[in-house]
Amino acid sequence: MTSAKKTGIFLLSLGLVFVLARSTACQQKAAETAAAPQPQKPSNEFPGTVKTALGKYLYLPTAQGFDIVLQGFNAASLIGKDIRVKGELLLDKPSIFRADTVDVKDASGAYSNVFTRTQDLTIEDFIDVKAREAYPVLVITGVNKPEEWEYKGKGKVYGKLQEATVKEGGLDKAVTYIVLTDDKGKEIGKIIVDKVSEFSQYYLKKLRLFDKFWFYLNVKDSVDKKIRPRTKELFHADVLFAGLF
After folding, report:
1. Domain 129-243 coded CATH 2.40.50
2. pTM of the entire structure?
């Protein structure tokens, strides 16, 4: 066999090896791509049993991370029922799922519609994670240090919600407090809660297994300095949000 023929056969064999290697690599890449997890579109339907609901807000364990909003509907009427929710996740409020329809499952397994959205979604009491960053921590160390909360406007505290009954004008009056304690559990003082937003009330029900929360407050008037040492009541506030962080 001449040198030219040998060279031709070698080049032909090398070409076949290259083609086969390239084909195998392409097949491996295609297989890897098929096996790799592909990005999923957010689901627009959730079935499940309603565990918590208040006002227009509803929580399903099968929709973890989302708070479902039924605009213009009493969601609490669905507690304990098996439902199917269809709607849309809001891009500007990633934790909010807008319900467009809700169907309830009966004993036979059939679904019947109980809610169809007819109103635009309004959730003015919703405070997202980014907005919460504007609330500074109020470091409160005693009843005689009003500078720690006065003129702050807004802030957040870590404490426990407590219901109590006090005397006012000889009559019993129900009061809600946020009780603040130090690192050893000793009570520092109590914030008088005038108002709790619906979204906050819903979140407190949703997190019912916990007893202490971060409360985001609209700070209002201080309690008279002559009364504070006796009652440990510090100031009035509205709760705008309550959560674990």
Report:
1. yes
2. 0.77
pLDDT of residue 116: 97
Q: Which helix (H) or strand (E) holds 143?
A: none
Has domain 45-116 been given CATH number 2.130.10?
no
Q: Is 89 exposed, middle or buried (0-12, 13-18, 19+ CB in 10 A)?
A: middle
Q: Report the SS3 class of residue 51.
A: coil
Cα–Cα separations (whole angstroms), residue 49 to 9, 77, 167: 72, 12, 42
* Owner of token pair 């603040």: 180
In degrees, rounded to 5, the angle at the alpha carbon of residue 102 between the alpha carbons of residues 99 and 108 is: 155
Q: What is d(CA 13, CA 102) in angstroms, rounded to the nearest whole number?
A: 67
Indicate the residue type of 31: A
Two structure tokens written together for 190? 């109590």
pLDDT 10s digits, 145-197: 999 999 999 999 999 999 988 877 778 889 999 999 999 999 999 999 999 99
Domain residue spans of the chain: 45-116, 129-243
Distance CA 122, CA 143 (A): 39
Tell me how far apart the terminal alpha carbons of the chain are, to the nearest angstrom. 82
Phi/psi of residue 104, nearest 5 degrees: -105, 135
**42 pLDDT tier (thresholds 50, 70, 90):** low
Rounded Cα distance between 53 and 75, Å, is 6
pLDDT, one tens digit per residue, over 60-93 is 999 988 999 999 999 999 999 999 999 999 888 8
CATH topology identical between 45-116 and 129-243: yes
